[in-house]
Design brief:
By secondary structure, the chain is an alpha/beta fold. It has 22 helices and eleven strands.
Length: 654
């Protein structure tokens, strides 16, 4: 793809008016919206801010590259903006930022788009290009500078490719020799990766290659970006390397680097500290990485995680891998219930939808446990996690005869148990002779991990939590209306209190667990209503109390109507971030009322997602919608009345 197709003249701001980081983001996002690159400012801005919260995209040297990839983007575009006086953008070097490249990538961007964006990102390490861009005064001049730089880079890349082929051939020949020559050039391998996989991944690759060439070091860089793994390191590459550089902000396949001197840093260090990383790898001053004994790439992270953060991350790994089974299986089962009155419970169509949905649901607890375990103990923990989760889903998998399985709670415990069993085995078997290393992943970990996890589940977890699960199930099935209303209100409020955070996920997970155990969607109705209310409350408040909001907030409020009815609670996050007291308190009040009403009216929604679009699947469709409307109106009115009026210097909406 030609760079002119990305660097649109209409998407350039040659004189940025903003004086703060927030204003700069608003001005660039508004420009995208005005020229039709995005159709939802708040969604795109929320993803931009989410990326900034991970690490500032102000990479230093006066450059910032905010970027997002979501469904609000209509076409891949790079917005170039230039600030005359510079802006404090929380840049990594603490210096003002003058040049901005806001990258917008569609949710379904193809490889051509991503390759062009990656190529564009890699150009920005060229100091001559950056200096010339700072002097540019017209959009035509900016386009010409990039086109010239791209042509020069393509010529250099071609030469580098030929050089790499020659090096590979030389390496094969050298491997046949009994001793390496004294003047052999150092060789290192590297992996670059960032959460979004659009910009930083490829900038780090380009920086490492450029600095390696200056230092007289041969390097091969594997990139783990949005288009997948490129330039994958082979076993021969890793064996030949003097050291390994990991410049990544997400999980990388680490066991292959066992026994190598390994530098593990954030991806921004790959861009800004390339010389340091290369020297550490070449001089073999970095620690030796050991794949056994529980070591992972996260253990050498520059920032230690708290115990709760680690537990939450492990839990989310299980839930995120489980959710496709929940949604896919749940929707098919719900469709079968919708078909049943018309075709009968013995119809092939009913049986098809119902059985396929049930097959998917049967994997929920095993998948949850397996991927919690995998997050803790890596791949060796997957097997004991799966089996432990399966045992938790079976009433007969216990030393004590029980009518109930350990269920969702047992599955959660199975995942953590299996993960930490494998961590323990890695440490326990660390002292075995090196000749037995090959037996560990194919024999010792599977057999001993399964034996230990299975024993703990069979003799301890399943007997105890089968009773607990049976008691919870019996309570839910037999509880009176008063208790049901309290529980529904509690779950609804939890959905609104942090809008996608731990409380929200805990409530949703509890409702799913109940749904899998009882096939009753009552609590799914409560959490779905509770999750829809915050964005709908925002929409109502911005519509009827428009003078209290800026024009931009009022427009964002309109999009929250769609997000709300779609059960996307996160649509309220930008408002909650700016005014947490008024937004969260009013949303929680409305969500508690809405969730409680679903239980008062005995609403049952046998679908795990869908918002208002699964209304026809509810046993009381009108009451389901009414619970949403009542909760949203109450929350919206509280927020609209309670919110302070705009200050005089803020542009109110008309």
């Amino acid at each position: 793809m030609d760079l002119k197709e990305l660097l649109l003249k209409d998407a350039m701001i040659m004189d940025l008016k903003a004086t703060t980081k927030a204003e700069a983001i608003d001005e660039m996002v508004s420009k995208y919206f005005d020229i039709g690159v995005i159709d939802d400012k708040e969604l795109y801005k929320a993803d931009i801010l989410k990326r900034e919260a991970q690490t500032s995209t102000g990479i230093g040297d006066g450059i910032a590259m905010p970027h997002a990839r979501d469904k609000a983007v209509k076409r891949a575009t790079v917005l170039f903006a230039k600030s005359k006086d510079g802006i404090d953008y929380d840049s990594l070097d603490g210096q003002p930022t003058y040049l901005f490249f806001m990258i917008a990538a569609p949710d379904g961007a193809d490889n051509l788009h991503l390759q062009a964006l990656a190529a564009l990102s890699s150009l920005l390490i060229n100091p001559d290009l950056v200096a010339n861009l700072k002097k540019a005064t017209t959009a035509d001049e900016v386009q010409k500078l990039f086109n010239d730089a791209m042509a020069a880079k393509e010529a250099k890349d071609k030469a580098d490719e030929e050089k790499e082929k020659a090096q590979a051939k030389a390496a094969e020949e050298e491997a046949k020799k009994t001793a390496a020559s004294a003047d052999k050039k150092p060789f290192v391998v590297a992996v670059t990766a960032c959460p979004t996989g659009i910009a930083h991944t490829y900038m780090a690759e380009a920086a490492l290659k450029e600095h390696a060439e200056k230092l007289g070091v041969d390097i091969k860089v594997e990139t783990n970006g949005s288009e997948g793994v490129k330039h994958k390191l082979t076993a021969a590459d890793i064996a030949r390397a003097d050291g390994v550089i990991i410049a990544a902000d997400k999980k990388v396949d680490m066991p292959r680097f066992d026994g190598k001197h390994l530098v593990n840093r954030p991806v921004t260090d790959g861009i800004n500290k390339s010389d340091e990383l290369i020297n550490l790898a070449v001089d073999q001053k970095a620690p030796i990485f050991h794949a056994e004994g529980g070591a992972t790439q996260e253990e050498e992270s520059t920032e230690k995680k708290s115990l709760w953060s680690k537990i939450y991350a492990d839990l989310m790994n299980g839930i995120s891998n489980m959710l496709p089974f929940v949604v896919g299986g749940g929707i098919l089962m719900a469709l079968s219930f919708l078909l049943e009155p018309g075709v009968g419970s013995h119809s092939q169509w009913f049986l098809f939808f119902n059985n396929v949905g049930n097959y998917a649901f049967s994997f929920l607890i095993p998948v949850l446990a397996a991927y919690i375990a995998e997050s803790i103990g890596d791949r060796p923990a997957l097997l004991p996690g799966f089996v432990g989760g399966y045992m938790a889903s079976q009433a007969s998998a216990s030393v004590v005869s029980s009518k109930s399985p350990a269920g969702f709670i047992g599955g959660l415990l199975a995942g953590f148990i299996a993960g930490w069993v494998v961590i323990g085995l890695k440490k326990l078997l660390k002292g075995l002779p090196k000749t037995l290393d090959g037996l560990k992943p194919i024999l010792l970990y599977p057999v001993l991990g399964l034996l230990a996890t299975g024993a703990i589940m069979y003799f301890a977890v399943d007997p105890i939590f089968a009773v607990v699960n049976h008691a919870i199930t019996a309570f839910l099935e037999n509880m009176g209306t008063g208790n049901a209303v309290i529980l529904g209100g509690l779950l609804g409020g939890m959905m609104a209190v942090d809008m996608g955070g731990p409380f929200n996920k805990a409530a949703y997970t509890f409702a799913i667990g109940t749904f899998t155990a009882t096939q009753n969607g009552a609590l799914m109705a409560a959490v779905m209503v509770g999750g829809m209310i915050p964005p709908l409350a925002i929409a109502i408040a911005t519509t009827f109390w428009g003078k209290k909001f800026t024009e931009q907030e009022r427009q964002a409020g309109l999009s929250n109507y769609v997000l709300g009815i779609s059960f996307i609670t996160e649509g309220a996050i930008p408002f909650a971030a700016g005014d947490p007291l008024h937004v969260i308190v009013s949303s929680v009040i409305g969500a508690v009322i809405g969730g409680g009403l679903t239980q008062l009216w005995h609403v049952n929604v046998p679908a795990p997602h869908g918002g208002i679009f699964v209304t026809l699947l509810a046993n009381h469709p009108l009451l389901y919608v009414l619970a949403v409307v009542i909760g949203a109106v109450i929350a919206g009115v509280i927020y609209g009345v309670w919110k302070p009026a705009l200050k005089q210097d803020a542009p109110a909406s008309k």
